Amino acid sequence: MGVLYTSFESIKNEVDEALQYLCDHDLEVNPITVLGNMVQEGLNLIESWRSNDYPQNYDYHQGVENLANLHAICRIVLRSRNTRFEKLLLSRLQNVLKGDPRMLSKGKHSQERDILFEVLCAYVCSQFASSVEFEEPDIRCTFQDNNWGLACKVAYGSPERFTKAIRKGEKQIEKSKSDLGLIIVQLTNKFPHDKMYWRDTKKGQIISSQNENTQRQLFKRLLRNTVKPFSNAYRDDIATNPRDWNYKVRGVLYAVHTIAYFQKRRCIMSGCYFSKYSRLNGTPESYFINLFNEKWQQV
Question: Which SS3 state, helix, strand or coil, does residue 197 take?
Answer without folding.
Answer: coil
